[in-house]
Amino acid sequence: MVVVVRQSTFSQSHEKANGVDLYPWLKALHLVAVISWMAGLLYLPRLYVYHCAQAPGSEASETFKVMERKLLRYIMNPAMIVSFALGFWLIWELGSGAWSLGWLHAKLALVLVLAVMHGLMAKWRRDFELDRNQHSSGFYRVMNEVPTVLMIGIVILAVVQPF
Ligand code: HEM
Predict the structure, then answer these.
(1) Could you tell me the pTM of the whole model?
(2) DSSP conformation class of 130
């Protein structure tokens, strides 16, 4: 008889001594953090699209600067840090066998690209802050699609775990 054990089953064997299974709580909080991070990654380039149409120094441009700074500083940066911290805590809970999971390697590679996008968005925000934006609204429209495509790949890898 062949017994197939799904990798998610492997994640369910972390009953704690006090009877509370920490794993699903970590995963739930990981998803809350990831959703918050993604909301920012999808919205910030959209703000840049509209910001491009404003004259530097105008009241509207200054308002966009405040919105962009607050979104990045108070939502996206903390949400990214919490997503990473809880993600690596989940890996630690899974044990050393987790590092041989193919889907996890692929997911981490895509997450790394997402983090690079985050860094680029932070750079573009500084450029806007100094009235030195160098890109067109069309550029930001295209950049807006990158996190969407990455998110689709990451969620399929994490949920379907195809390899
Ligand atoms: C360094 C960053 C990250 C690490 C280390 C990480 C790691 C993990 C781990 C180990 C799990 C548990 C998998 C299981 O129990 O089967 C998980 C779950 C999940 N992660 Fe991440 N993750 C990270 C970032 C992200 C991002 C950016 C997204 C989405 C854009 C994401 C989406 C998910 C989803 C949807 C699940 C639930 C999968 C399920 O149980 O069906 N993760 N993550």
Answers:
(1) 0.90
(2) T
